[in-house]
Amino acid sequence: MSDSTVTQSEGREEVAVPDTVTGRGARRPFGRLRRPGRRPRLWFEVLLIAVSYWTYSLIRNAVPEQRSAALRNADWIWRAEHTLGIAVERSVNHAFDSATWLIVGMNYYYATLHFVITIGVLVWLYRWHPGRYAASRTVLFATTGVALLGYYLFPLAPPRLMRGGGFVDTVMVHHTWGSMASGDLKHMSNQYAAMPSMHIGWSLWCGLTVFALASVPWARVLGLLYPAVTLLVIVATANHFWLDAVGGLLCLAFGFTVARLWYGALPYRLPSPARHPGPAPQLPSP
């Protein structure tokens, strides 16, 4: 029994693909079938992620560090936030800096969980939701890729580097290892790539993925808390403005749009098990 076809008024034919969840026909965009979800090859995924992150870091750090423009943009962001009534970053920074144990913990949170949690969610998707892995990874890659445009087109100094901003660089003050943008490591990283915030873009991707796919309530709650706590951390450590987080959110929306157009559905609505290619079952003739 072959897939049914529907003839359009323009004379084109569109293949109706059975929905594995509901059993109803679902049409793929652009009039052609997307590749079915398969369990990706582990070696390929590890290599792809490693090469992609290396390329991203290389391009990000190769963007000219336009100090004057970055400082002007920081002043503009700060004034805009005052106009909007949300310029409370300095107060948050000083309040958390007064509790040494807390701000030191935030420094390590900023430096490590950004990578650890993201990799952990990728591994979880690969192991337990292989049919959704490729689409979810596409969201993350597209989000990160478009962020490079922000770094190039809108160099931005973080609050801790503002002239006369009165912010505390918590890594420098408390002598903690915690940022590629402070201490002896600052020459290895672009100091003026604050907009958009990929700490927010990545943490939102992680949080939404866990919330949408986790089966236990406490994990879903943690999924929602993770980007919220990350937002507090990036502000308390004076690494980002609130509006940098908005930039990260917009990049994530772009990533979801790319995946939706390519796969015909949001990653979380795709079938969970990987579909393995094979001969179609033969139905007995009537």
Automatic annotation (TrEMBL):
The keyword Glycosyltransferase does not apply. The keyword Lyase does not apply. This is Phosphatase PAP2 family protein. Residues 1-23 are annotated as: Disordered. Residues 76-256 form the Inositolphosphotransferase Aur1/Ipt1 domain. Keywords: Membrane, Transmembrane, Transmembrane helix. Its main location: membrane. It is found in: Membrane.
